[in-house]
Amino acid sequence: MPEGPETRRMADRIRRSLIGKDILHFHFNHEALADLKKVEKIQVVDALSRGKAIIIRLHNGKSIISHNQLYGKWTFHRPKTIVKSNRQLRMEFITGTKAVRLWSATDIQVLNSSIESSHEYLKKIGPDILSKKTDLRIIADILVEKKSRNRALSSVLLDQSILSGIGNYLRSEILFFSLLHHSQKVSELNQNQVLSLGKAIKEVTERAYFQKGKTIDLKYFSKEFGNIDNFRRVKHMVFGREGLPCFICSQIIIKLIVSSRRIFLCANCQNYS
């Protein structure tokens, strides 16, 4: 499932492809989009993300809100490119230079833009980590609230009602950069650890957005190793690196299954006893 950074980059791409462009053809194939089939012309005026949802605002005051979940996928091709797919096409926008399509998603709804925040998903999620308004202090304050403080970090970080946008790979990376163990509770952390966790949440998520999914800190690698060419293909510090040495201490990275979800960690750097 795409996490916050991937969803934000997808919204960026939709915005670049459609805003200010004449949409020569459009197609909708989902019961929630039935009323849009009746319009003669479509113009996209904005595209943005919140958490793992994409919001496409139209010229007629309507917003299309979609969540990819496990199977949804956005694609971008030249208009004349023939696309072969066994996925179900949900919506399509074609301009003179780009064909933008959403496949297989089932969580789609159309609302008046003025009340889009009433959407069932949007009204339940916490602050979007990638929002400029969500700073370190806001994140730290949220972490110590009653809703969060007595739960394991592994659970808190995936709870979209607390902070939105974190998924499996971000969770492992955030915990590593903050040197915390997934089974620790927020209530067990001192103030510096809470701030370190909040800092990692913000910085790791932003790096993943700007570095197209990479969470490694290139500045760190440059400082520690000088020539970083050997790390160009490295995406993460721990996620997906089971059996490989930790970049910091050389201990072997391990994988655990917690509540049916994978967590990768360095037991030495993230020691908790």
Please explain how this structure is put together:
The chain is of the alpha+beta class and 273 residues long. The protein folds into two domains: 4-118, N-terminal domain of MutM-like DNA repair proteins (Alpha-Beta Barrel); 136-265, Helicase, Ruva Protein, domain 3 (Orthogonal Bundle). Helices cover 26% and strands 20% of the residues. Strands 1-6-7-5 form a four-stranded antiparallel beta sheet, covered by helices on one side. It is globular. The model has no long low-confidence stretch (mean pLDDT 92).
Number of helices: 7
Main sheet: strands, sense, barrel? 4 strands, antiparallel
Strand coverage percent: 15-25%
**Nearest-integer average pLDDT:** 92
Helix content: 25-40%
Element order: H for helix, E for strand: HEEEEEEEEHHHHHHEE
- Over all CA atoms, what is the radius of gyration? 21 Å
Termini distance? Answer: 32 Å
Per DSSP E runs of 2 or more residues, the count of β-strands stands at: 10
CATH architectural type of the largest domain? Orthogonal Bundle
Number of domains: 2
CATH topology call of the largest domain: Helicase, Ruva Protein, domain 3
CATH class descriptor of the largest domain: Mainly Alpha
Low-pLDDT residue intervals, each spanning 5 or more residues: none
Write a brief structural summary.
Helices cover 26% and strands 20% of the residues. The strands form three sheets. Strands 1-6-7-5 form a four-stranded antiparallel beta sheet, covered by helices on one side. The chain folds into two domains: 4-118, Alpha-Beta Barrel (N-terminal domain of MutM-like DNA repair proteins); 136-265, Orthogonal Bundle (Helicase, Ruva Protein, domain 3), CATH 1.10.8.
